[in-house]
Design a protein that fits this description.
A hairpin with a 7-residue loop joins strand 1 (58-66) and strand 2. The two termini are 26 Å apart. Helix 1 crosses helix 2 (41-55). This protein is elongated. A two-stranded antiparallel sheet has the order 1-2. It has helices at residues 13-27, 41-55, and strands at residues 58-66, 74-82. It has a domain at 10-55. By secondary structure, it is α+β, with helices and mostly antiparallel strands.
Length: 85
C-alpha cells in the first residue's frame, strides 16, 4: 500500500510546525526551519515522543482498598491509563 506524507488539513501545517518546535525545545533539541537532516534518530524520536506525550498524557489514579488476603490491612493500588478519543 502506497503512503503519502501529505497534510490532510493544509491550514494546520503552521500549527503542527509550531507544536514540533515547542516539543523539540522541551527535550533540548535545536531545530532549524526546513530540512533537519543532521538530527540523529534518537533526537528525532525524542521529539516525536514528546509530541505524543503532550497529545495523550497518561493519567494515574491511586486509592487504598482493603487487602483481600489479610484481614484489617489496606494496600495502595495505582492505575495508569491514557485518555484517547
Amino acid at each position: 500500500m502506497a503512503r503519502s506524507n501529505k497534510t490532510l488539513v493544509p491550514e494546520a501545517k503552521q500549527a503542527l510546525n509550531q507544536f514540533k518546535m515547542e516539543a523539540a525545545n522541551e527535550v533540548g533539541v535545536t531545530l532549524n526551519q526546513g530540512y533537519n537532516g543532521q538530527l540523529t534518530s534518537a533526537q528525532a524520536g525524542s521529539i516525536g515522543g514528546q509530541m505524543v506525550n503532550n497529545m495523550n498524557p497518561v493519567r494515574t489514579m491511586r486509592f487504598e482498598r482493603h487487602n483481600r488476603i489479610s484481614q484489617g490491612h489496606k494496600i495502595t493500588v495505582k492505575y495508569a491509563f491514557s485518555l484517547t478519543v
